[in-house]
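User:
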Amino acid sequence: MSQESLPSDGPPDHPDALPEYAEKVLEVAELIPPGRVMTYGDVAEWLGEGGPRQVGRVMALYGGAVPWWRVVRADGVLLPGHELRALGHYRAEGTPLREAGRATEGHVPRLDMRHARWDGGGHTEGHT
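Assistant: Predicted structure:
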């Protein structure tokens, strides 16, 4: 998927500038309180444009400077390849987790989406 596949009103004004859609996604990621998460689809719905794949692409390309661990898969599985880093953040922030069963590969917990998911309540500034 190329950068052109991100929803946008046009190219950035400066070559080093983020696409407008990426800026919006990263702003939402920064709004999510510690200990809470939003799914890729939740972020797209919040913005009223794009979809889970576009949000995931933004987070993969540009999410390193924001709390990336707070934008997650809907099934609560930790980001493959980043499980231990994310788990450290979740434990430090008190994010609700479901301990892994004995049959779970690697015994890595999942997010408890019922308790960890944030709906954006109380933060409507910038919500389009």
